[in-house]
Amino acid sequence: MVKQSLINNWATAICELAVEQKKAKSFTKTLEELKNIFELNQEAIYFLSNKFIDIKTRIKFIEKIFQKDLEPLLLNCLKLIAEREIFSQIEYILNASIKKLWESLEIKKGIIYSTLKIDQKYISTIEEKIKNKINQNIKLENKIDSSLIAGIRIEVANNIFDFSLKGKVEDMKNIILENREQRS
């Protein structure tokens, strides 16, 4: 296992490059796309981190797959990560880099809980409404929570917005308990 400090060093370097090049927003978007690609294609990570495969072959693979669509700086970062034999940690490096870039862009990370996966367009609409409500830039990640029964629950920047059936039931329960206490 690679040390957390090494992952943090890579994330810091990528973030500093993005800020220096004034490309923090585009790097963030690209890194999020890379993260999704590697999450869906774990075999690519296994291939690129396999020390029994010649490094030149792995570098050619990176170039062939990403050269057309990837910023040269990020392409070189992927190559260096492969050369340093830490590609098995690419998901951690990408997550840490994205987090640092969000901080540099003053974006707060939040979670939108739902019983089913939510479409990205709908998440973007929700992000915009919450942004206007709390006056902060936010980025929401969708997580499945089957205990909600229906609806959504959002946690971001020390705020909780509960639009779930479970939350409504809890609210009704609290109102009933308050009314009982007032009658006693």
TrEMBL record:
Pfam families: OSCP (PF00213). It is found in: Cell membrane; Membrane. GO terms for cellular component: plasma membrane; proton-transporting ATP synthase complex. Its main location: membrane. It is a peripheral membrane protein. InterPro entries: ATP_synth_OSCP/delta_N_sf, ATPase_OSCP/dsu. GO terms for molecular function: proton-transporting ATP synthase activity, rotational mechanism. Keywords: ATP synthesis, Cell membrane, CF(1), Hydrogen ion transport, Ion transport, Membrane, Transport. F(1)F(0) ATP synthase produces ATP from ADP in the presence of a proton or sodium gradient. F-type ATPases consist of two structural domains, F(1) containing the extramembraneous catalytic core and F(0) containing the membrane proton channel, linked together by a central stalk and a peripheral stalk. During catalysis, ATP synthesis in the catalytic domain of F(1) is coupled via a rotary mechanism of the central stalk subunits to proton translocation. This protein is part of the stalk that links CF(0) to CF(1). It either transmits conformational changes from CF(0) to CF(1) or is implicated in proton conduction. Belongs to the ATPase delta chain family. This is ATP synthase subunit delta. It comes from Spiroplasma cantharicola.
